[in-house]
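Appendix B, example 12.
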Amino acid sequence: MALWAGLCAVAVAGTGPATAGERIPGPPPAGLQQALEQSVADGFPGAVAYARRGERESRLAAGLADTATGERARPDQRFRIASNTKSFVSAVLLQLEGEGRLSLDDSVEKWLPGVVRGNGNDGRAIAVRQLLSHTSGIYDPTTEPAFFAPYLERHQWGHVYPPREVVARAVRHKPLFAPGTGWSYSNTNYLLAGLVIEAVTHRAASVEIQRRVLAPLGLKDTSFPLTDPDIHGPHLHGYDLSGRDVTRFSPSYAGRRAP
């Protein structure tokens, strides 16, 4: 599914993070506002950006948050960060390895017995690190238009895809290549990585991400939705390539589910 959404750009430089109370407004990097405006000129409805150098930060916006109402984009509006959550999942797994609770060389089968099996898929041959590096060869069913039919065709915006259902759909296909012999971006990899977190910690991946990443970094305005199709509060809208508003949909297919 291709989406046009409010584009987010982030630039951070400096020797270390400052707390929210220490940061003060500063001039934006040269050309950043122009880059946002060019993004809008190129077809994005709206764009927001955050930049920080040391204790100085800048927040910028361009274009529209909502094309129907003409509401302008603002830097304080919320938006879905989508696959940026993959970095959070990776960070948690790296922490768990650092704590000696797993090894990135562990097989997927060790933590998820029987989950990756059939049609040439074999969790015994796939290492956890290959999930994180997209070198597992596991198929990604979210690349199929039919996968999004509940949302885009039937308008069932609250439709829930449990992660294991997405994985089951993936292993109905042959792997794209033998583990470790190629590279292909697959959302299935990170659904499995989230399930590994749950198998190791006996807690929902969303709970571990909140506890280990969001809270320590002070990301109080960042949430990990489960099945709620709405973005609550002021937010940027997202659109498909025809310009249809597709902001409202359940994020469950990407692994956001109730514990």
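The chain has eight helices and nine strands. Residues 161 and 253 are 5 Å apart (CA to CA).
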